[in-house]
Amino acid sequence: MAEPAKTIPNSFRAGPDEGGHFGIYGGRYVAETLMPNILALERAYEEAKADPAFDRELKAWLKDYVGRPSPLYFAERLTAELGGAKVYFKRDELNHTGAHKVNNTVGQILLARRMGKKRIIAETGAGQHGVATATVAAKLGLECVVYMGEKDIERQKPNVFRMRLLGAEVRPVSSGSRTLKDAMNEALRDWVTNVGDTFYIIGSVAGPHPYPMMVRDFQAVIGEEAKAQVLEAEGRLPDLLVAAVGGGSNAMGLFFPFLDDPEVRIVAVEAAGDGIDTGRHAAAMTAGTPGVLHGSRSYLMQDGDGQVVEPHSISAGLDYPGIGPEHSWLKDVGRIEVASATDREALDAFQTCSRLEGILPALEPAHALAQVIKEAPRMDKEQIVVMNLCGRGDKDIHTVADRMGMSL
Amino acid sequence: MRERIEGRFADLRAEGRAGLVTFLCGGDPDPETSLKLIRGLPEAGADLIEIGMPFSDPMADGPSIQAGNLRALKAGMTLPRLLDLVRAFRRDDDATPVILMGYYNPIHRYGPTRFLDDAIDAGVDGLIVVDLPPEEDGELCLPALDKGLAFVRLATPTTDDARLSAVLANTAGFIYYVSITGITGAAAPVATRVGEAVARLKRHTDLPVGVGFGIREPAQAAEIARQADAAVVGSALVDLVRRNLDGDAAGPGLVDAVLGKVRDLAEAVRGARTP
User: Fold this and answer.
1) Quick one: closest CA in B to A186, which residue?
2) Chain A to chain B, count of Cβ pairs less than 8 Å apart?
3) Is residue B43 very low, low, confident or very high in pLDDT (cuts 50, 70, 90)?
4) Phi then psi for A19, rounded to 5 degrees?
5) Tell me, what's the ipTM?
């Protein structure tokens, strides 16, 4: 096995290489049945990227259908409460469907239409990606099947109902830990079976090449906007970016445009569940080792025999044993720092944000906020933090109420 | 080593018949029963033996083999124990080729180089690693070939002529044609399409062609045996393991049930080309 890369590259934004590798991570670890499809997808994506008409249509959808640009919002009372750096939220929870996921599904469904695919499949954890996929599939009148773990169906009922209202079929997955990882296994099995007419919209910067690159590119609109917005508001770049990572798409979207700005510190926040030392967490970069799952090599929660360990997080969107390969590479080369927040800390941050800012954050960005709550007080008042508020918390009120000992 | 596979296919050619390749999950439903099953396979008529390396997330497998993987893991199966299983089998049988089949991560975790050395030492002849396409040959496939193991590649209905040369380039032992686009144990293959596909592969390679995925019954195996060099049966046998469980443990008739099925399949395969 190769050693992790140690040399510092000229640019942190040059990857992946032709084989889809970011250092030792990434790649195309899939069954032969899928290889021709993955290669065709890569070609179609490269062609679309070079086509001004595709870019125009994507931008029009993002503006008129998604509602972009999302605001960069100064969280004044939170800043005062923390007594340190100025805290800004990138308000991707204000997008149509309530999270950042739609930035990517819009891009991929336009690609699916370009490729003449008639059937859309997706995996979902919290249901946000499933809803965002069902939404764009409805808009184009395409058949849509979403795989979702039984455990997630139980804790994200509102999103399951939303997907059904949007005309999608939600297929419960009962294998393994009955969460996001198993939903992805099942979506891959569907794709292998229906390879001719089906387009698989992966929701994170994970999976085989070209998905990690393609999803990153579609999500990078978050960071591009944030960069322009913070320059306009403050006349300079932020000192710190913070985002939560499950598979890592909202974080990569915010981070990517800033990777070559060395003055910007970047922190990815993993889900520590009951605590890293309990083993009941979903912190692949903090506590995992490099492994191969779902088509790419990356940090992975696994045992000594290479069996995938079941993750635990209060947040269904972070409850995944892996992480996008580009994050693993950025961690190894030292460009991003990795922190973690427990279920408890995320719940506290959820309530703090609700009370101080009048915003119910999703439990995923509540993990990022928990890190901001630790970092901001240690920083100077002139310093700037930008956090990706990547989803709204309406979907999580049952989970939060349950943990607070209340019934709705 | 690959010679054992090549020799076995040469013998089959000399006998003028196709071979039967059987798949079972290593350690399913428990290591002891699994060894009994594997030891019984050659006498029951299996010409080559595939043993599944258990993995928690077998993405290309249907419900039967998924369940077999999980049973084996629950019974404490690990990759080192699987190699012990092969070692124990090799003490009594020096002729039947053994091919390990599975996913890359357990090997990645074990360490590819150490794994290849230990597999050869245990008596393994070839590997099928479902999620290592030619694009990722550097890590395991090429070192395996260098050390003398066969690396058996899957070709599928989606593998077009342009891609076939890449698929065949570093394949050794035989080529495994996946007769359907789908997961293991799914719909049965259509015999005429299989015949055409095998003919197409034969235009590109001198390697023997084994055909699998979806072959469950002796008559289907015979049909495949008329058109290919070997028929591969897996899910049907793994299902028989499940149906003969007593709770989580092996029921009294399990070994006989599985080996009985192998006998029926072998008889059909052996008789397939007799007029």
Assistant:
1) B59
2) 121
3) very high
4) -85, 5
5) 0.94
Q: What is the pTM of this model?
A: 0.95
Mind listing the pLDDT tens digit for each residue in A333-374? 999 999 999 999 999 999 999 999 999 999 999 999 999 999
Q: Are A66 and A103 in contact (CB under 8 A)?
A: yes
Residue in B66, B109, B160 closest to A291 by CB = B109
Q: How confident is the model at residue B31, as a pLDDT?
A: 97
Distance of CA A237 to the CA centre of its chain: 23
Structure token digits, residue B208 = 């023997």
Give a three-class secondary structure readout of chain B.
Answer: CHHHHHHHHHHHHHHCCCEEEEEEECCCCCHHHHHHHHHHHHHHCCCEEEEECCCCCCCCCCHHHHHHHHHHHHCCCCHHHHHHHHHHHHHHCCCCCEEEEECHHHHHHHCHHHHHHHHHHHCCCEEEECCCCHHHCCCCHHHHHHHCCEECEEECCCCCHHHHHHHHHCCCCCEEEECCCCCCCCCCCCHHHHHHHHHHHHHHCCCCEEEECCCCCHHHHHHHHCCCCEEEECHHHHHHHHHCEECCEECCCHHHHHHHHHHHHHHHHHHCCCC
pLDDT digits (tens, 9 = 90+) for A98-139: 999 999 999 999 999 999 999 999 999 889 999 999 999 999
| A122 to chain B, closest Cα gap in Å | 15
Note whether B170 contacts A: Cβ–Cβ < 8 A.
Answer: no
Domains of chain B in start order, with CATH, are 2-270 (3.20.20.70)
Tokens encoding A155: 């804790």
> From CA A110, how far away is CA A117, in angstroms rounded?
10
pLDDT > 80? residue B100: yes
C-alpha A152/C-alpha A143 separation (Å) is 22
Between A256 and B275, whose confidence is greater?
A256
**Preceding peptide of A210 cis, ω within 30°:** yes
In eight-state DSSP terms, residue A316 is G
Q: Kindly report, residue by residue over A365-388, the tens digit of the pLDDT.
A: 999 999 999 999 999 999 999 999
Cross-chain CB nearest to B109 (options A31, A195, A302): A302
Which positions of B are annotated as active-site residues?
A: 50, 61
A1 to chain B, minimum CA–CA distance in Å?
Answer: 7
* pLDDT for the residue numbered B180: 83
CA distances from A19 to A209, B12, B134 (A): 7, 40, 11
SS3 A143: strand
Mean per-residue pLDDT for A27-54?
95
According to DSSP, the β-strands at A198-200 and A119-124 are: parallel
Cα(A77)–Cα(A112) distance, integer angstroms: 44
Contacts of A32 in chain B (CB under 8 A): 133, 153-156, 158-159, 167, 178
Other C-beta atoms closer than 10 Å to the C-beta of B136 total 21
| Strand B245-246 to B249-250 pairing | antiparallel
CB-neighbour burial class of residue A321 (10 A; exposed 0-12, middle 13-18, buried 19+): buried
- State residue A234 phi and psi, 5-degree precision: -120, -10
Rounded to whole angstroms, how far apart are CA atoms B107 and B44?
30
How many other C-beta atoms are found inside a 10 Å radius of the C-beta of residue A37?
21
Pairing of the two strands A169-173 and B98-102 = unpaired
Give the per-residue pLDDT at B189. Answer: 72
The strand pairing partners of A173, in sequence order, are A149
Sign of the alpha-carbon torsion through A342, A343, A346, A351: negative
